[in-house]
Amino acid sequence: MHGQHDGARGDPIPEAISAQAEEFSRRLTAAGPSRLAAAARASVDGLHALVAQLRPSVEEFRLAIDFLTEVGHYADARRQEWVLFADVLGVSSLIEDLNSPRPAGATPNTLAGPFYRSDVPDTPLGADISRDHKGEPLDVEGRIVGLDGAGIGGATVEVWQANSEGLYENQEPDRQPEFNLRGRFRADPQGRFGFVTVKPKGYTLPSDGPVGRLMSALGLGLERPAHIHFRVSADGFETLTTHIFDRSDAAIGRDAIFGVKPELMAEFRALPPLGGKRKYALDLDLVLCPSPAERTGTSGRR
Ligand SMILES: [Fe+2]
Q1: Full strand arrangement of the beta sheet holding 137-145
Q2: Distance 61 CA to ligand 1 centre (A)
Q3: If you measure from the C-alpha of residue 245 to the centroid of ligand 1, how many angstroms do you get, rounded to a whole number?
Q4: Neighbours of ion ligand 1 (CB under 5 A)
Q5: How far is the CA of 6 from the centre of ligand 1 (A)?
Q6: pLDDT higher than 70, residue 3
């Protein structure tokens, strides 16, 4: 938040909503333009518009302050209730969309979520990433391609997912082996990759805090449909962070953090049972787009 930006980014200053908002804006103008001042002005205008629309009582205002205070008290090194709040309002997803736009034909980018780990060891293509073999086997075969459909050889493909109970290994380190259901693959020269895993189950976001209570009071759920997370990086291309969702999951239309998009829904196909166990297969293409430098031809590769 330095002053070198034109604070208003060229946007017209909206008419003040209230006498207080107008005076706040006047004081900011006297202090000089900055991105921070523009953000403060827009925030105050938005808040005053909200108050003018809702006309909360003093008691309702106190309840709102109490709620926000409790959200803060729930946030610590292991639990970020503020992020959860932004997630369930769709704000985190909107910010991701605005900051990581993708051209038509490219796989949409989505939030990484809280369970990503960057320290997963290299994993051979075709490996079984289920280290406890609990759940229904799932064969995943995919290709990393560019917008022209050509394979991107050597792309790095990171994968992480919940187990058949909807839990990630770092949520229950005493029950699941380290790096369970995680992999870090290098695509072959044609951009192909594959691995064996188990079918993930969807899960519910933490409901024991103030955000969970708010959602419950609103009659809204905290479910996330079953999915596998991917992060794909390759020289000259935008890094893609995304999820692939099981389109048959009952919660597919009500993902609590608004991550589901049509291009990200896939069929987890049922295969003939294996030794009495149900088995599934998932085929997918993940489409990368060139990095901005490659698109404009202004500089070398990252
Ligand atoms: Fe997830």
Answers
A1: 192-198, 137-145, 277-287, 269-274
A2: 35
A3: 10
A4: 113
A5: 38
A6: no
